[in-house]
Design a protein that fits this description.
This protein is α/β, with parallel strands linked by helices. It folds into 2 domains: 144 residues, Aspartate Aminotransferase, domain 1; 243 residues, Aspartate Aminotransferase, domain 2, CATH 3.40.640. It is built from 14 helices and 15 strands. The strands form 3 sheets. Strands 4-10-9-8-7-5-6 form a 7-stranded mixed beta sheet, sandwiched between helices. A 4-stranded mixed beta sheet has the order 1-2-3-13. Helix 3 packs antiparallel against helix 11 and helix 4 packs across helix 11. It is globular. The two termini are 26 Å apart. The protein binds pyridoxal-5'-phosphate.
């Protein structure tokens, strides 16, 4: 590791992150190198962010070209990359209108505000509650944290915002039993990411949609992790043949530059009138030009189809590991958002993989998560699977 970096970091940072002892110097595609020249194959991708790999030369070029022209003005004015990116999102999703912000949590804040305002403008001010799912993750700012269904993340921050209820994910009876008279929206991750790569039953989301329609309330899909091809379709909702009223995006939208977006249908979006919501940096030309290049590469190189195929291959390899090792409880996920539940602690495995030159991560104590760049090669998957095979064969 780079000399003394741990000590220096420990003396200056607020201690929010438990970091692994690696200092990353540079990357290329699916590979990263530390300061000792050690190479890692990256199955984390900045937590499902760098879908097109590290140091993508075309994206770097787009950033450079835009930086020399214009970094930032204000949303008091029009800029072309912002309009082009919004148009691409509208063309390729259910949505009609887009609001740009800078992160996932901000996109969720925006969605919460829009849902409340939609009903407030209709005079239904009592309909302000958001119904969310247990084990969900929606972000760390106060609104998004309040919408998050994991008590451990709220410790020390109470009181969180009023107006959030929780029911178990993938349990349609729990939703049916819920009194929805004061609910304005249901917020769901179509596949729960941080909660453990949990996929709902095939028809669950369609049933949720029906119940929302019947009650006249909105459906918000948080696709911050599942969006931008990650699950083998551009947006995860496409798998389930159901569309939301509002969707949040962030993570992979810019391949590493900070961007978030909230997308809504026309009728709902109308509730945001001038002055209702804003962001200084949101949709700046630098960031949207980068994301526009991401979109262009996605289309040209059929990245989504590629993810679907690679994901199917990856699952097969993981399944074959499962048949060999008793510590593997199950393999789950869609596309290249994959999880492997163990009956042993996951972090030891993560550390052993790291020593052997593979970055993976562990969520909820015992679920290994694999979220590589969508351009990952089969050979790299084979190498990781061999590595895991060796580790699981050790005396753990
Ligand atoms: C990562 C994530 C967020 C939060 O995004 P940030 O950019 O870290 O604020 C929200 N929802 C989901 C589903 C996520 O995976």
């Amino acid at each position: 590791m780079k000399k003394d970096i741990k000590n220096r970091a420990d003396s200056v940072f607020v201690k929010t992150y438990r970091r692994f002892p690696i200092s990353v110097k540079e990357g290329s595609g699916c590979r990263l190198w530390d300061y000792d020249g050690k190479e890692y194959i990256d199955f984390v991708a900045g937590i499902a962010v760098c879908n097109l790999g590290h140091a993508n030369p075309e994206i770097a070029d787009a950033i450079y070209k835009q930086a020399k022209k214009l970094l930032h003005v204000s949303n008091l004015y029009y800029t072309e990359p912002q309009v082009d990116l919004a148009s691409w999102l509208v063309k390729n999703s259910f949505g009609d209108r887009v609001f740009f912000c800078n992160s996932g949590t901000e996109a969720v804040e925006c969605a919460i505000k829009l849902a409340r305002r939609y009903f407030a403008l209709k005079g239904e001010t009592n309909r302000y509650k958001i119904l969310s799912m247990e084990k969900s993750f929606h972000g760390r700012t106060m609104g998004a944290l309040s919408a998050t269904g994991q008590d451990k993340l709220k410790q020390g921050f109470y009181p969180v915002l009023e107006g959030f209820d929780f029911i178990p994910f993938n349990d349609i009876d729990a939703l049916k039993a819920k009194d929805l008279t004061d609910i304005c929206a249901v917020i769901i991750e179509p596949v729960q990411g941080e909660g453990g790569v949990r996929c709902p039953d095939e028809e669950y989301l369609q049933k949720v949609r029906k119940i929302c329609d019947k009650a006249g309330i909105l459906l918000i899909f948080d696709e911050i992790q599942t969006g931008m091809g990650r699950t083998g379709t551009l947006f995860c909702y496409e798998h389930y043949n159901v569309v939301p009223d509002i969707m949040t995006l962030a993570k992979a939208l810019g391949n590493g530059v900070p961007i978030g977006a909230m997308i809504a249908s026309e009728k709902i979006a109308e509730a945001f009138t001038p002055g209702a919501h804003a962001s200084t940096f949101g949709g700046s030309p630098l960031i949207t030009a980068s994301a526009l290049k991401v979109a262009e590469i996605f289309e040209r190189d059929s990245i989504v189809e590629r993810c679907k195929k690679t994901g199917e291959y990856f699952v097969k390899q993981l399944e074959s590991l499962k048949s060999k090792h008793e510590c593997i409880v199950d393999v789950r996920g869609k596309g290249l958002l994959l999880g492997m539940k163990l009956n042993i602690a996951g972090n030891t495995i993560v550390t052993r993989c790291m020593e052997k030159g593979f970055l993976i991560n562990c969520i909820q104590e015992n679920i290994l998560r694999f979220i590589p760049p969508l351009i990952i090669e089969k050979e790299d998957i084979d190498s990781l699977v061999n590595c895991l095979d060796e580790i699981f064969s050790e005396n753990l």
